[in-house]
Amino acid sequence: MANDDVLRGVRTISQVAGSELVPDLVRLLAAGQPVPVDRLAKATARPSSEVREELAKQPSVEWDDDGQIVGYGLTLRPTPHRFSFENKTLFGWCASDTLMFPLILDTEGVAESTCAATGRPIRVELDPHGVRRVDPPEAVVSEVRPQNGVVDVRAEVCGLGHFFSSREAASEWLAAHPEGQVNSVEEDFVLHRSVIEELGWSATSGS
């Protein structure tokens, strides 16, 4: 994977408000329960007021009625992108999220979604070391990396990250998003493994 793609991914994530909280928050949300701000503050060794202020800058963060966090990348609320691990099923905001969770959580799992063009089921078996199996093998992942800052990460980035059953199936998406690209599932995993490692988010490097 080209180093420019890795740097672009690191830059995009780094400019998202509250992104430095993501790895610890993902690990807490992986338990399958809403996360109180105080618990996230303790995990990140920051004052609760600072954590709440950072999260408030990102309109995509999902909250429940009790003011607890239920989603930021990994979410307890259903989306088209499921991630199953350790007898639990949670969800990702985008296709690439589901490929990053094994690295952040140090777990094997199964990502399941549907082709955004054809509706064909897509299943990916993977672990922190790589992709074990993709069905269909020709599946690809779409992505857009804004160059001028990100205000709402779900709307501007995650909402454009889909699985497609093949490059041909993604052709209309590419025509509509000339600034975007598609990678094979394996390529996307390798790309985001490098991004995660560069950010220090992998379970082995810590957040």
Describe it for me?
This protein is α+β, with helices and mostly antiparallel strands and 207 residues long. The chain has one domain (3-199): Beta-Lactamase (2-Layer Sandwich). It is 35% helix and 23% strand. The chain is built from 8 helices and 11 strands. It has helices at residues 3-14, 22-29, 37-44, 48-56, 95-105, 153-156, 171-176, 185-199, and strands spanning 62-63, 69-72, 74-75, 81-85, 88-92, 109-114, 121-127, 130-135, 140-143, 163-164, 181-184. It has an 8-stranded antiparallel β-sheet with strand order 1-2-3-5-4-6-7-8. Strand 6 and strand 7 form a beta hairpin. Helix 5 crosses helix 8. The relative contact order is 0.16.
What is the structure about, briefly put?
35% of the residues lie in helices and 23% in strands. With 207 residues, it is α+β, with helices and mostly antiparallel strands.
- For the secondary structure, the number of strands is 11
Fraction in helix: 25-40%
Note the beta-strand portion. 15-25%
Question: Mind telling me the C-alpha Rg?
Answer: 16 Å
Describe the secondary-structure layout.
Blueprint: H1 3-14, H2 22-29, H3 37-44, H4 48-56, E1 62-63, E2 69-72, E3 74-75, E4 81-85, E5 88-92, H5 95-105, E6 109-114, E7 121-127, E8 130-135, E9 140-143, H6 153-156, E10 163-164, H7 171-176, E11 181-184, H8 185-199
Antiparallel strand pairs: 1-2, 2-3, 3-5, 4-5, 4-6, 6-7, 7-8, 9-10, 9-11
